[in-house]
Write a structure and sequence with these properties.
The structure is a single chain. The chain is α+β, with helices and mostly antiparallel strands. It folds into two domains: about 5-75, GMP Synthetase, Chain A, domain 3; about 85-150, Roll (SH3 type barrels). It contains three helices and eight strands, in the order H-E-E-H-E-H-E-E-E-E-E.
């Protein structure tokens, strides 16, 4: 089993959602970002220190059993500017304000900010729908380099 699959299985088994996973060169530092799946997308996640500690303790045990060599493990919430990584994230957070960066620019523009309208399949290609002012843009999900929620204070 690959490391990412091992982490995702462990995190979801504890009732959390794996948002993102990062490693440093040679995988000496492992960063795991977790969230609680909520029924309401507008409801803020409430990942606390106890949640991070529980996931960290369980991952440490799993890594010991699986002989995963690492120096440091960091478990954290995704933050208010939560990244949207999976197709399900783009569906879940429809109606929220997001910032997108494309891999390949559309015209001469690579960065967009607007209201996420969701995700739809067009000709077998999943497309992110983003409303910028009064214009609806559609981007192939594969062309989205980064997407983050815009925090509301």
């Amino acid at each position: 089993m690959q490391l990412i699959e091992l982490i995702e299985t462990t995190v979801t088994g504890l009732g959390y959602e794996l948002v993102e996973f990062e490693t440093s060169p040679r995988a000496r530092l492992l960063r795991v970002f977790i969230d609680k799946p909520t029924a309401e997308p507008t409801q803020k996640s409430s990942i606390g220190v106890d949640d991070c500690a529980a996931v960290s303790n369980q991952l440490t045990r799993v890594f010991t059993v699986e002989n995963i060599d690492f120096d440091r493990l960091e478990v954290s919430s995704p933050g208010l500017d939560r990244p949207l990584v999976k197709a399900a994230d783009f569906r879940r957070f429809a109606g929220q304000e997001v910032q997108l960066k494309l891999r390949v620019p559309l015209g001469n523009q690579r960065n967009f900010s607007g209201i996420l309208e969701g995700l739809e399949a067009v000709d077998g290609v999943e497309r992110v729908c983003l409303r910028v002012n009064e214009t609806l843009h559609q981007f192939a999900l594969d062309n989205v380099d980064r997407a983050r929620l815009v925090p509301k204070f």
